[in-house]
Amino acid sequence: MSTKSYVRLAGPMRTAVVCLSLFCLSPISLPAEAQQLTAESKLDKLQAGFYRMKIGTIDVIALSDGTTGFEVLEMLSKPKEAEKLLAKAYLKSPIDASVNAFLIQLGERQILVDAGSGELLGPKMNKLPVSLRAVGVGPEQITDILLTHIHPDHSGGLTVGGRKVFPNAVVHVDKRELDFWTDKSIGENLPEPSKSFFQTVERTVGPYIASNQIRTFDGATRLFPGIRAIPAYGHTPGQAFYALEDHGEKVVFLGDTIHAPDVQFDAPSITIKFDIDQKLAAIQRERVFADAAKNGYLVAFAHMYFPGVGHVRKDGSHYRWIPVPYTNDATKY
To answer: What would the pLDDT profile of 138-192 be if each residue is shown by its tens digit?
Structure first.
């Protein structure tokens, strides 16, 4: 017996069966106004999020998969220093981390960078399909998915309930990454939380392997016109960044370079337990920040506050995040 509350609309007169806690009430008919309010309330709870921009002539859309809270100080390598930096930003643990994905509309291709979390990280997540539909793209229209790495908040959304969410997509991932996460002898010996992450791979990535919808590449690789993979090993053994360039403009999708932005721009050496190679992950972060600050291109992060796109600026011995200005591109109601 379920304790879940829900409203189900059915039948030609839109009859509703209302279940609250353990008790189901008799069917009732809802007037048109109530039907509209119910639908609007449901949409409000879904909170689709998107942000449109252009890189040269190419449309890119940041998509929200939701936010998830976690006790960040328990996860960071220097909790006392991190606590002080959070306080400077008027924050304290736990914090809510954004989970972002990005859609690149390249000719006839609809290319996702990362696939969200699916059903793995709780009820505030799994908003990516809703966000996609809000920009007029159904999950079945996605032709390609560029996985930065195989962690549940990036690859978990490939399936829900054992069903492929993106049935027509080819999933691209660095060969080192796929080899690592599909080697059961490795998974058995991983520390937490990586050991638990490993246990999600078979049911999320597995169906795409079974249907031959996985394509691997080896390190630096040109994948599509204007899109190339950049090896970024450290956070995971085969993490990849993706650079998109067109008409002199550039954005680099940086996956899990940061998890606590209010900490790690000030102190790039601070790592998190999710990093499999802590030392290399810190080196990668410093290198990426320095290059983005020097060359001025846009960067897009999976866990920066939505939409997660902006510039990095050198500020003394630290770095500063400069988010893109908000633009409302709606032309009619």
So the answer is: 999 999 999 999 999 999 999 988 899 999 999 999 999 999 999 988 887 888 8
Tokens found for residue 173 = 């991932």
List CB contacts of 193: < 8 A, sequence separation 6 or more: 273, 274
pLDDT of residue 22: 28
Contacts by residues 202-207 (CB-CB < 8 Å, ≥ 24 positions apart): 203/159, 203/162, 204/118, 204/120, 204/152, 204/155, 204/156, 204/157, 204/158, 204/159, 205/150, 205/155, 205/158, 205/171, 205/178, 205/181, 207/158, 207/159, 207/162, 207/164
Q: Evaluate the CA torsion angle 208, 213, 217, 220 in order and state its sign.
A: negative
DSSP, residue by residue, 102-115: EEEEETTEEEEE--
Q: Is residue 153 in a domain?
A: yes
128: CATH: 3.60.15.10
Q: Is 223 in contact with 217 (CB distance < 8 Å)?
A: yes
- Closest C-alpha to 217, from 257, 159, 170, 169: 170
Q: For residues 165 and 160, give the distance between their C-alpha atoms in angstroms, rounded to a whole number.
A: 7
**pLDDT tens digits for 206-243?**
999 999 999 999 999 999 999 999 999 999 999 999 99
The DSSP bridge pattern shows strands 249-253 and 240-246 to be: antiparallel
Distance CA 275, CA 284 (A): 11
Residue ranges for the chain with pLDDT beneath 70? 1-48, 329-333
* 13 and 132 both lie in a single domain: no
